[in-house]
Design a protein that fits this description.
This protein has 226 residues and is α/β, with parallel strands linked by helices. It has two domains: 2-118, Response regulator (Rossmann fold, 3-Layer(aba) Sandwich); 127-221, Arc Repressor Mutant, subunit A, CATH 1.10.10.10. The chain has eight helices and twelve strands. It has helices at 10-22, 33-43, 59-69, 83-92, 104-118, 153-164, 172-180, 188-201, and strands spanning 2-6, 26-30, 47-51, 74-79, 96-100, 127-130, 133-136, 141-144, 147-148, 170-171, 211-214, 218-221. The chain has a five-stranded parallel sheet, sandwiched between helices. Helix 1 (10-22) packs across helix 5. The longest helix has 15 residues, at 104-118. Residues 125-223 bind DNA. Residues 125-223 form the OmpR/PhoB-type domain. It comes from Longispora fulva. It holds the Pfam family Trans_reg_C.
């Protein structure tokens, strides 16, 4: 596996590099956004560890451009654990985030978790449908009205999980564990991803029909028959 680390702090970059390499991951470092984008095009990484606060082009803009060019998974590094920073990173399409100061071991575990979920595996062909929404699980492609949906890795996994389990209400903590593989973490992650997914698959995100809110519980895939 190849990971691109984009961070302007050489100390942080070196620590992250050493811990990832100990885990058997090939690492490329970039000190700023422009260099990171150029490296991403050159090496085609399996995942990008991206600092939110970068000189010049910030991490949000870098993430937007990475998303424009493909669906490479992104783990965002945010400072001070501010909720606004986390939500901003997730809204941009980050698949996960780690707040500074962070444990290098925790970062490695988060990176490995995302890589496991995005690595090609032998999967039996499966297609999930509801009206004009068609999801090719093995091909990791979703289409609505014949048009491909620009879903992030986490958004796609969340959509598949809900479509496979129609009619059941899930708590955010359950979704966090089932989709993200976390037994603990900030549950606002789920809220942000549900909102982003609704904006892409619902005809009216303000009045969702497919992903319904069950007050006091969480969310469910509305159509009982999938």
């Amino acid at each position: 596996m190849r990971v691109l680390v984009v961070d302007d702090d050489p100390t942080v970059s070196d620590v992250v590099r050493r811990y990832l390499e100990r885990a058997g991951i090939e690492v490329t470092l970039a000190p700023d956004g422009s260099t990171g984008l150029a490296a991403a095009k050159r090496i085609r990484p399996d995942l990008v560890v991206l600092d939110l606060m970068l000189p010049g082009m910030d991490g949000i803009e870098v993430a937007r451009r990475l998303r424009r060019d493909g669906d490479v998974p992104i783990v965002m590094l945010t400072a001070l654990g501010e909720e606004s920073d986390r939500i901003l990173g997730l809204t941009t399409g980050a698949d996960d985030y780690v707040t500074k100061p962070f444990s290098p071991r925790e970062l490695v575990l988060r990176v490995q978790s995302v890589l496991r979920r995005t690595s090609p595996t032998e999967v039996l062909p499966e297609t999930l449908t509801h009206d004009t929404l068609v999801v090719d699980v093995a091909g990791r492609e979703a289409r609505l009205d014949g048009k491909e949906l620009p879903l992030t890795v986490r958004e796609f996994d969340l959509l598949v999980f809900l479509m496979r389990n129609p009619g059941r209400a899930y708590r955010r903590s359950e979704l966090l564990e089932s989709v993200w593989g976390w037994t603990f973490g900030d549950q606002s992650t789920v809220t942000v991803h549900v909102r982003r997914l609704r904006e892409k698959i619902e005809y009216d995100a303000a009045e969702p029909v497919l992903i319904q809110t069950v007050w006091g519980v969480g969310y469910r895939w509305g159509p009982a028959n999938g």
